Protein 1
Amino acid sequence: MLEERSAGAVLFRLEDREPIYLILHYHAGHWDFPKGNIEQGEDELSTVKREVREETCIDDVEFIQGFRRMVEYMYRRAGRLVHKVVVFYLAKTSKDEVKLSYEHNDYRWGRFDVALNLLTYNNSKIILRDADTFLRGILSS
Ligand code: ATP
């Protein structure tokens, strides 16, 4: 079985102290957070910064300490089974302009409920719920 490891971000900006999340539309059809493969010798946070920059042109990512979550799933690539682990960090940007790369065909900025409905996979919805609760705890303190 092939093994794949990616890292990504629950990326948000604040609008009147309300978190607005970025969700991307993948060519395969699903909606998910920005993420990408961890390259050899690269640490997770560097992957997240690089992938967010490459996929959206957002280059001012600021990580929120204390949030790191993992999802895993299996899929088939060219007939071969792939076991994939993706780690997600929570990160803030002050930018709202997004320039997509060839890897995605659409994006949305949305408040929690909008983003939650957009996400295709339940494991990503769980991450967003968790991130939103975590963030609101910080914002209210
Ligand atoms: P990356 O963004 O890490 O470079 P990718 O675009 O190559 O990844 P994935 O987004 O992992 O690929 O999608 C590969 C396959 O896995 C697709 O068929 C997709 O539908 C499925 N998939 C993607 N995310 C999930 C998930 N969270 N849970 C289950 N299956 C998923």
Protein 2
Amino acid sequence: MNILLLGSGGRESALAWKISQSPECSSLIIAPGNGGTARYGRNLPLKPTDLDAVADAVKSNSIDMVVVGNEDPLVAGITDFLAKEAPEVLVVGPTQAGARLEGSKDFAKQFMEAEGIPTARYRSFTADSLEEGKRFLATLTPPYVLKADGLAAGKGVLILDNLAQAQKELGEMLGGMFGASSATVVVEEFLSGIECSVFVLTDGNGGYRVLPVAKDYKRILEGDKGPNTGGMGAVSPVAFADETFMRKVEDRIIKPTIEGLRKRAIDYKGFIFLGLINVAGEPMVIEYNVRMGDPETEAVMLRVASDLVPLLKAAAEGDLGEMPLEHDPRAAATVMLVSGGYPGSYPKGKVIGGLDAADGNPDTILFHAGTAVDNNGDTVTSGGRVIAVSSYGKDLAEALSRSYATAAKVSFDGKTFRSDIGNEFV
Ligand code: AMP
Ligand code: GLY
């Protein structure tokens, strides 16, 4: 098959790495890709949210299947658009109606409430109901959780300890702090527990497969301190996500989610990302995403033992049937190397050295994220998250020590990483 993968992050590097190993993949285009993805196929410069450009690329490259890596094109309706413009092409990714699970937190909460899916108690407010929102906050116990309804590049969630501050921030969010994204704000109860990320590949007809479970590390500083980032590392498996926990996840969350989508006639063929929290052994949903996670994918792809392409194809065709998705018994750990200053402002264009540090090493892979090749042919930094160093190990301790050994050999001005990824599991 000729495959087009949309996106440019570490997630897409890991997907491209996995897809390109398939005997069923005859050609792979990554659009736009990054400074490292050309080793898995061909980079094509286009904006994934430019739906016309994507449709043109599908037609002019005889693409058989599009795999949508990031949420923006899904929320913009790429799947519906291609169904009209290029009806033959298979698409891994939900329609715009399905993408609302990520694109609107208010929709996601209503959906979960209607389907009886365990999640934090909530109410939604707009500028007109600000005073009511302040009164609702006063009925909750701190900390207070405020979420912009729409996409806000991972920045739309505020967690505040103080009631007066939460009431003030609610007013500011509704006043346009995150633009149109926060015209509606979800206020919800704070849940206490450890988070994990569960990924489900579904075929839109009730069939699904669960991928290896991962945990990501969102805060910039060791000990989970400092501001949230896109993710500083990931590990898989996650010890507490054992058989008992995962049975609860399937029965209480995955099955009702898939049934709820079907009931609403939402055509959902693709990945569902369940951001879960383990509250005293009981899984609850923090959020839905409509794509794989980043950097979780950089660990999870190492643990998908089956060929991914037939699974993606079957999901996009609407019939996963009995096709197995085998998990690799080894552990995987990803350490993200980020630019100094991230998640605030940071310089770009720093030359990266040591990119061959894992060459010839079957246990470690350097997945490029925010990298580009400059006019001199040097690979340079071009984003906050730069390189995801991912390793296999017989257990997490071994996987982590391999990733850290390689992380030390990659160099660029300002290189920063957390040295406590996975610590609680080793
Ligand atoms: P979200 O964008 O919804 O994933 O929220 C970002 C982060 O905020 C989550 O990964 C959690 O760490 C935290 N968070 C969101 N909602 C809650 C909640 N109800 N209780 C506790 N933490 C939360
Ligand atoms: N790592 C969390 C996300 O991809 O949203």
